[in-house]
Design brief:
Blueprint lengths: L9 H7 L24 H9 L13 H15 L13 E5 L2 H12 L5 E5 L4 H11 L5 E5 L4 H10 L2 E7 L11 H10 L3 E5 L4 H4 L9 E4 L14 E5 L2 H15 L5 H11 L2 H20 L4 E5 L9 H7 L6 E6 L2 H11 L4 E2 L9 E3 L11 H6 L6 E5 L5 H13 L1
Parallel strand pairs: 2-3, 2-4, 4-5, 5-6, 10-11
Antiparallel strand pairs: 1-7, 6-7, 8-9, 9-12, 11-12
Helix pairs in contact: 1-3, 3-10, 4-5, 4-9, 6-7, 13-15
Length: about 400
């Protein structure tokens, strides 16, 4: 994976992993059907017996969704080898949302009585899922600063940890966890490791290179890249597990994606490399501009040497990425005025779209957390998150300047 050894670049993999389309179509068609026809009773029986469960019922699988799954698996596996030196094989399951994919990931690996360990800077929805949903299922969550390996090791020794979940870079503090170090420690204790790779994408970071077991994405973000659909994906290296236990939770929870959203995702991924290069170049310049501005108190961007995780990001990422957060010298009130004054950059949650998006985590993406937890995680009342888009850089900077100085 990719199927053709001539494909030596990520953009080529994104565009040409799938070559056999129905009726010789240039693009993957939208298979807008709820169910599929059996030519004979025997054929129907045989399809139910296969592990792929293809062409039966679209909640179980759909050809458009399958093409998206195979493309994402190829991107995550690009250039990687398994323990035998062969190209790494991965299996992906495309979900209706990132939260649905995350739910499958946790519930297929954990059960009542198990303990999950994670980092203390997480997307608000992840934190709530752990503490408000998994907790009701009898699954305990421990939160530590996973950048400190001594704390990770202490948690492992004092608790029977079943799974370690890493979000790196983390939302919205852009903290980075050393995947190689944590995974090495986890494997010494036979602990499952999962990684949220949403912020980085396979272009900037490949967690499977460090031995992790599962990778999760909100495909709504950079993989789609245009804000046109909601989606999520779970990718695993244990192919049998993905076809059995993971697929069973996926199918029974009903968190499957749909053909139209999968079609939009497939086409968005074709420009992933091009978009990420522009996102990242714009973000670096924007972070440097903000860091030097007198109205800005501090900037969280792991491409700046001032960021505490600069070295970790440099080690495991191709580029620090497009996300940053910052706080104005005037605190919350100054931040609200700044956001209201923006003329081009868009006031909206989410991230990874072509446009620059600006939001206020404490009252938006992380509103469900207590103020005490937010402050512990570094999410102050005045913190502003920005997903830097692919607009012309001077226009981004001009909008920020007028909003900061008006």
């Amino acid at each position: 994976m990719p199927k053709d050894p001539l494909l030596t670049g990520l953009s080529s993999v994104a565009m040409h992993t799938i070559r056999d389309h129905a009726e010789d179509s240039h693009l993957t068609p939208i298979f807008a059907t709820s169910t599929f026809v059996f030519d004979t009773a025997q054929q129907g029986m045989e399809r139910f017996q296969t592990r792929e469960k293809e062409n039966i019922y679209s909640r179980w699988g759909n050809p458009t969704c399958k093409d998206a799954e195979e493309t994402i698996a190829a991107l995550e596996a690009f250039g990687l080898k398994d323990s035998n030196g062969s190209p790494l094989q991965l299996k992906a399951l495309l979900h209706a949302s990132g939260q649905a994919a995350m739910t499958t990931m946790f519930l297929s690996n954990l059960e009542s009585g198990d303990t999950l360990l994670s980092h203390f800077s997480l997307y608000g929805g992840t934190h709530e899922l752990m503490h408000k949903v998994l907790a009701q299922a009898g699954i305990r969550t421990l939160i530590v600063d996973m950048r400190n390996l001594e704390l990770v090791e202490k948690a492992i020794k004092e608790n029977k940890i079943k799974l370690i979940h890493i979000e790196t870079p983390a939302n919205p503090t852009i903290q980075c966890v050393d995947m190689a170090a944590v995974t090495k420690l986890a494997k010494q204790h036979h602990i499952i490791v999962t990684v949220d790779n949403t912020f980085a994408t396979p272009y900037l970071q490949q967690p499977f290179a460090y031995g992790v077991d599962f990778v999760f994405h909100s495909t709504t973000k950079f993989l789609n890249g245009h804000g046109t659909s909601i989606g999520g994906v779970l990718v695993g290296r244990d192919i049998e597990f993905m076809y059995t236990r993971a697929w069973k939770w996926f199918a029974l929870l009903g968190g499957n994606s749909n053909p139209f959203d999968a079609f939009l995702l497939i086409n968005g991924m074709k420009t992933l490399e091009l978009r990420m290069d522009r996102h990242c170049a714009n973000a670096m310049e924007t972070a440097q501009y903000l860091a030097a501005h007198k109205a800005v108190a501090h900037v969280n961007y792991n491409g700046l040497e001032s960021h505490p995780d600069f070295a970790v990001a440099k080690k495991q990422m191709r580029h620090p990425g497009a996300l940053m957060s910052f706080e104005l010298a005037g605190g919350l009130e100054a931040g609200k005025k700044f956001i209201d004054r923006l003329r081009m950059c868009i006031r909206a949650v989410s991230l990874g779209t072509a446009e620059t998006l600006v939001s206020h985590p404490a009252s938006m993406t992380h509103y469900g957390l207590s103020r005490e937890d937010r402050l512990t995680f570094g999410i102050t009342d005045g913190l502003i998150r920005m997903s830097v888009g692919i607009e012309n850089l001077p226009d981004i900077l001009n909008d920020l300047e007028q909003a900061l100085t008006t």
